[in-house]
From TrEMBL:
Keyword Metal-binding: no
SUPFAM superfamilies: CBS-domain pair, Winged helix' DNA-binding domain
Pfam families: CBS, HTH_11
Segments passing through the bilayer: none
Protein name: Transcriptional repressor CcpN
SMART domains the UniProt entry points to: CBS
Superkingdom assignment: Bacteria
CBS domain segment(s): 83-139, 148-212
Keywords (A to Z) from UniProt: CBS domain, Repeat
Length: 212
C-alpha cells in the first residue's frame, strides 16, 4: 500500500478533474490561475500514484484513491492529547544521583523538574546528567536544580495543539521530548505538567497509521 500526503494544490487539482473530466493541463492551470509548468510536478505525482489517468490529446481523468492511504487528514485531526504519555517528574531538591536512577528505571531521555507546588521549573536530559557525572561532582548530594535547564528556557506544548507542531518543536530545538502543560488556575504564569510527548510517541503514531 502506498502512503502519501497530498498538498492543498494537488487536492484542488483532483476536485477540478472530477468536475470537468476529461480536462487538459492547460484548462486545469487556468482554473488555478497558474502556468502549466507550475503544475507539472503535481500532475506527475497524481498520475504516478494512479489517482489521475492521462490520455494523449484527450486530457486527465479521475481514477480514484481507493488503493492509497492518504494520511494527511488523519495527522491534522490528531492532537497532542491523543498520543502523549505520562511524564516522569522529580522534585528540584532531589539529588543528581537519584535522578539518574529514575531516568534509567523509567527508560526516558529527559525528566521534568517540579517545585514544591508541583509547578514546572526545569528539565534535564541524559546529556546533562552525563556532563554532571564526568565533571566529578558530588552527585549524591548535589540537587538536580543545580544543573537543570530552567524556565523560561524550556520548550512546552499544550494538549490541544497539533501533533505536527509538537514534531516541529522537537526537531527544531533538538530535544528528545517536551512537557505537555496547562496553566495553573491560581497563577496563569505557572505551568503544570500533564503529559509528555516524545520522538517515540510520534514514531509510534506514524507506524500505527501505516499499519492501518
Amino acid at each position: 500500500m502506498t502512503i502519501i500526503q497530498l498538498n492543498d494544490r494537488q487536492l484542488k487539482i483532483i476536485d477540478i478533474v472530477k468536475e470537468n473530466e476529461p480536462i487538459t493541463s492547460e484548462a486545469i492551470a487556468a482554473h488555478l490561475n497558474v502556468t502549466r509548468a507550475t503544475l507539472r510536478s503535481d500532475l506527475a505525482i497524481l498520475t504516478m500514484t494512479g489517482i489521475l489517468d492521462a490520455r494523449p490529446k484527450v486530457g486527465y481523468f479521475y481514477s480514484g484513491v481507493s488503493e492509497l492511504n492518504l494520511i494527511g487528514n488523519n495527522i491534522k485531526d490528531k492532537k497532542v492529547r491523543d498520543i502523549m504519555s505520562l511524564p516522569v517528574l522529580v522534585k528540584k531538591d532531589m539529588s543528581i544521583y537519584e535522578v539518574i536512577v529514575n531516568m534509567f528505571l523509567s527508560d526516558v531521555g529527559s525528566i521534568f523538574i517540579i517545585d514544591n507546588d508541583d509547578i514546572l521549573c526545569g528539565v534535564v536530559s541524559r546529556k546533562d546528567l552525563l556532563k554532571a557525572t564526568i565533571g566529578a561532582s558530588d552527585i549524591n548530594h548535589m540537587p538536580i536544580g543545580m544543573i537543570m535547564t530552567r524556565m523560561p528556557n524550556i520548550v512546552t506544548i499544550n494538549q490541544d495543539e497539533d501533533i505536527v507542531l509538537a514534531a516541529k518543536k522537537i526537531i527544531e530545538h533538538e530535544v528528545d521530548s517536551i512537557p505537555v502543560v496547562e496553566r495553573d488556575e491560581n497563577n496563569k504564569n505557572n505551568l503544570r505538567v500533564v503529559g509528555r510527548i516524545s520522538k517515540t510517541n510520534i514514531t509510534k503514531f506514524f507506524l500505527e497509521l501505516a499499519d492501518n
